[in-house]
Design goal:
30% of the residues lie in helices and 28% in strands. It contains nine helices and 14 strands. The strands form two sheets. A ten-stranded mixed beta sheet has the order 4-5-7-14-8-13-12-11-10-9, sandwiched between helices. Strand 2 (49-53) and strand 3 form a beta hairpin. Helix 3 crosses helix 4. The longest helix has 17 residues, at 90-106.
Length: 325
């Protein structure tokens, strides 16, 4: 097998990079260069890497150096990163990991942190790259508990929600006091988002300008829905169509003064219905951590219990870590 060469990304590789991500086994919108372009220029120092064999692009690694070049993180400015490749056999995966480690060793890198997308994002379930990293003595920094809904039940999905969720959704649909619509009203959604996050003493990951820029850069990868009580928007969801397999609920938000109307139940029903109808396999509802706890791995039990009402299951989001000796 010929040697794999690691070459820092340059703009001449743009089309090849985006094509590889689109055709890969485990790529997501977060690995697309066009997504990373939403960040204000200079906010992050990207050092994206490409892996070549016999003149062919084999894999890509979006990320960047921190701590004056001592530490490499993937992703930087995104939810998921790590090596993106096709449905490769183990020997190629091991060679990719070895090439990556040789490159960072030659650069004087001291630590590597990689956060791959959970396995459900893969077209074919294949964890050769992750196993190759563990075989080369990567360890874990953190595990977050995320929750996801398997859409294997098709149009019968509602039968698998718990009794409370089914009863609440049937009541909302029967009484017709709430309606949910696709929307481009990002300003209104942002107001709901800010109000919701303020209650938890945190700020959103994205500003209104960020959301609008992502929408403009990748209009086919985002979907905004708003819930109306009469003519008043009271809740909403911003979905990332992360790849052909997974819809990610990045924000599910409501105005808490209308919490008694249970608008998020309607959001979850419509999200599952739409994703099922459009051929997706999973819905990622995101991590379920207690953001106020000292230990970042602390689960938010109330949030987890709520997510489980919709037939979701716990999925690990893990950070692979390597420290050079």
């Amino acid at each position: 097998m010929s040697k794999i060469e690691v070459i820092p990304y340059n703009s001449s590789m743009y089309d090849a990079w985006e094509k590889l991500v689109a055709e890969s086994n485990n790529g997501t919108m977060f690995h697309n260069l066009v997504f990373l372009d939403y960040h204000t220029h200079g906010k992050f120092e990207f050092s994206n890497l490409t892996f070549w064999q016999d003149g062919k692009l084999l894999a890509v690694l979006p990320g960047g150096f921190k701590e004056n070049g001592r530490t490499y993180w993937s992703p930087v400015g995104a939810s998921y990163g790590s090596i993106v490749a096709g449905d490769i056999p183990f020997d190629i995966a091991l060679n990719l990991v070895d090439a990556m480690m040789d490159y960072f060793r030659s650069e004087g890198t001291e630590e590597i942190f990689l956060i791959p997308p959970p396995i459900m994002y893969s077209t074919n379930y294949n964890q050769h790259i992750e196993y190759a990293m563990l075989y080369r003595k990567f360890d874990f920094e953190l595990h977050y508990i995320s929750h996801a809904i398997d859409l294997k039940h098709g149009k019968d999905f509602l039968k698998y929600f718990d009794k409370t969720a089914r009863k609440t959704i049937h009541k909302i649909l029967r009484e017709d006091n709430l309606r949910i619509e696709d929307s481009e009203d990002y300003e209104t959604f942002n107001n709901i988002l800010l109000s919701n996050k303020a209650r938890h003493d945190v700020l959103p990951t994205h500003s209104l300008e960020d959301m609008l820029r992502i929408r403009d850069l990748m209009p086919d990868k985002v979907k905004l829905m708003l819930v109306y009580y009469g003519e008043l928007p009271i809740a909403g969801s911003w979905l990332f169509l992360a790849n052909g397999n997974v819809v990610l609920c990045f924000y599910n938000m409501l105005l808490y003064e209308f919490e008694h109307l249970k608008p998020i139940y309607l959001v979850m029903y419509e999200t599952v219905r739409w994703a099922t109808e459009n051929g997706y396999k999973w819905i990622d509802i995101g991590v379920s951590q207690d953001t106020k706890a000292e230990d970042p791995m602390t689960p938010s039990l109330g949030l987890i219990n709520f997510k489980e009402r919709f037939n979701s299951r716990g999925i690990l989001r893990s950070t692979f870590h390597y420290k050079f000796k």
